[in-house]
Task: structure prediction
Amino acid sequence: MGRPDSCTLKAISPVLNREDIRAVSDYGSTNGQVFGVTPEYNQIRNIPLGVGRWFNNKDNIDWRRVAVVGWELLKNVFPGRPAVDATILLNGIRFDVVGVLAKVGQDGNNGTNARIFVPIETMRDLFRLKQQNSEDAISFINYRPLNKGEHLRSKQEVHEIIARRHRFDPKLEDAFEDWDTIENSRRVDKIFDAMDYFLGVVGLVTLGLGAIGIVNIMLVSVTERTKEIGLRKALGATHRNILAQFFVEGMFLTILSGGTGFCLRRVL
Result:
């Protein structure tokens, strides 16, 4: 679908999603999500290529049977072997693997890692959605605004386009479901900002309590060592020398207790 004639949308892609397609290679087999998308899809979602290439407009227009394989699914279908330029059977139909995605997410838990991507026209020709009244039925639409600040305008524009084509009121909220990832991201950022603020306050309170504890310890130490202090002053120690002694002792206790707590935290 690409970029529409719009001032707010950067790219838009319909998606056909099937989870009942068996992927088989010469080395293994698995069930994974097969996504039929346009070439612009990698401009909308995070699709980092590890090896090979993403498919292009020519692949889509010519209904080429090419596929890009996710990192997690690759381990089951091509364990320890190169996948690019190899072939894979999707429900018995041969596809050429043209690319392999890099791992998405630090722990690899992202669903993209277990997906196979093919051109949407190829998907529409070979693996149409089941139990749908229309041959042009799609699973959902992904789109990206030109900038985050206009995401609400882009959302409204998409609603108006779909409503115009399917003849319903664009203000009807129950016509279809949508998921605003930018708004969700902002909500998550606010939650983390609140947590940072809370933890910062807790940290300041903890430091204050620790300082009070050290002051009390040093006060008790000074009270119990008045004779020692008097003897040192009699021997010529200055007020600064005595303060320096207790300051060094307090700093040593702080470093020792802090270092012990840090080591215990690393071990546990």
User: Anything to note?
Assistant: The chain has a mean pLDDT of 81. Residues 229 and 237 are 9 Å apart (CA to CA). The longest helix spans residues 181-224. Helices lie at 41-44, 57-61, 71-77, 120-126, 151-166, 181-224, 226-234, 239-267.
